[in-house]
Predict the 3D structure of the following.
Amino acid sequence: MRIKSCKSAQCWEVAQDYTVHCKVHHKMTQDQALALMQELNRSLGGKWFKFVSSLRMNAEQDDQGQIYLDSFKRVCQ
């Protein structure tokens, strides 16, 4: 079994089983994503559900839980 290290700069901690980051950097990434979504929610106000619907319409056909970054940017404009 090969041990993989965290992909964050200058971090040598062991990466989680299913991620490329250690526990600390994985949590930091999750927190940053959550903060981004909360800021989007605040800025969109009552248009949040329309935004989510647009994301779903532009999501991948095979996996509705994923969207390409280009598509995400287009929806955000």
Summary: The chain has one domain: 23-76. The chain has a mean pLDDT of 88. The chain is about 50% helix and 0% strand. Residues 32 and 38 are 10 Å apart (CA to CA).
